[in-house]
Amino acid sequence: MRLRDRFSNWVYGKLEKRMNEDLGGSVRFPSIFATESNILESSDVYELLQDISNQLMLAEIVVEDSDGNEIRNDPALKVLKNPNDYLTQSEFIKLMTNTYLLQGEVYPLLNDNQLHLPTNVYTELDKSLKEHFKVGSVEIPSSMIRHIKNIGTNHLKGVGILDLGRRTLEGVMNAEKALTDKYIKGGLLAFLLKLDAHINPGNGAQSKLIKKILDQLEEIDETRSIKMIPLGKGYNIETLKSPVDDEKILSYLNVYKKDLGKYLGIDVDTYRSLIKSDLEKAMMYLHNKAVRPIMKNFEDHLSLLFFGSKSDKRIKFKIDILEFVPYSTRTNIAYNIVRTGITSPDVVADRFLGLPTQDTEESQAIYISND
């Protein structure tokens, strides 16, 4: 901590102590600093993380050979389906994605046919440019762990929204907190107690009276509350106007909340307008801008983790884009595929519409429209 910060904290501490000792009141300097534990309190960050990680969570994970053919009984699939004793496959992929986006890096570890995501991993390159991993004092063999990075300009460290957007994020979270705190009890209630006489901490009667009045005011927790407080001569209570300017804060949020999406590769205005007009296009926009690069990075590292660099086998994430399409659109696609002779009605029923196949000669035939 820098000298200036230490001095500021010392001054704040002295002021709070003086107020508590003399008048029984308090002075607060509330602020929020973005950390892993509170970043999801930002609704915009949470929404975008959910949309991205949910697409990856819903992906089917397969193993393919060098020709792109699926290997259905590969042992890696069993591990990926049940990564460990405390996370399912869906939870593991979602946690790995969120950690990757927030911190900029994540460390999947394969040990005894179980996958884990250790934290506080220390990495360094030796003279031979080989990466070494440590958790505490324990060194982890490089064959057991991968360092998945959201690459910026550093070859050994990834960048996430906690680093890239920290200043913007903290500004947004503090602005939201200011508004929330103002209205959490129906609006900000602030009072000014005015005395004609000087405040003398040595005057026990005066200090006791001031404390009683302050206690009465602090008990007012709603704007509709009514409280009768008898005051002697020279004492006056005035209601203060809230220093929290709603319009200015909302204007600030309208500008800077949208910027948070850019640190995740998404233009929030474009994404939200697409959601309103065409959900399929919105999901495809999200998929191409944010999800596909993450999928490719995960595929590369998980393939190396399970199979090593000399194997031709690869782990692949497959997302069914039709899941983003309304059923009426699926029906139109299915109709056009059948009438152009691309495939049979049975295949379309099973693949596109989720209907049982008829298994008849007619339903398995190929048709070409005369139109």
Largest sheet properties: 3 strands, antiparallel
End-to-end separation in angstroms reads: 76 Å
Percent of residues in helices comes to 40-55%
Strand order of the largest sheet: 5-6-7
- Globular, elongated, flat, extended or rod-shaped: what is the shape? extended
- Residue share in β-strands: 5-15%
Structural class, from secondary structure content?
A: mainly alpha
The secondary-structure element order is HHEHHEEEEEEEHHEHEHHHEHH
Contiguous runs where pLDDT drops below 50 for at least 5 residues: 18-30
| Mean pLDDT across every amino acid position | 76
Instruction: Give the assembly state of these chains.
Output: single chain
- Rg: 30 Å
Number of helices: 12
DSSP E strands, number: 11
Overview of the structural elements:
The structure is a single chain. The protein is extended. The longest helix has 29 residues, at 279-307. It has a three-stranded antiparallel beta sheet with strand order 5-6-7, with no helix packed on it. The chain is mostly helical. Helix 2 (43-57) packs across helix 10, helix 9 crosses helix 10 (279-307) and helix 11 (327-339) runs antiparallel to helix 12 (345-353). The chain has helices spanning 3-23, 43-57, 75-81, 89-103, 161-164, 166-183, 204-218, 246-262, 268-277, 279-307, 327-339, 345-353, and strands at 60-64, 105-106, 109-111, 114-116, 121-125, 131-135, 138-140, 148-149, 191-195, 235-239, 314-318. Strand 3 and strand 4 form a beta hairpin. The protein is 47% helix and 12% strand. The termini are far apart.
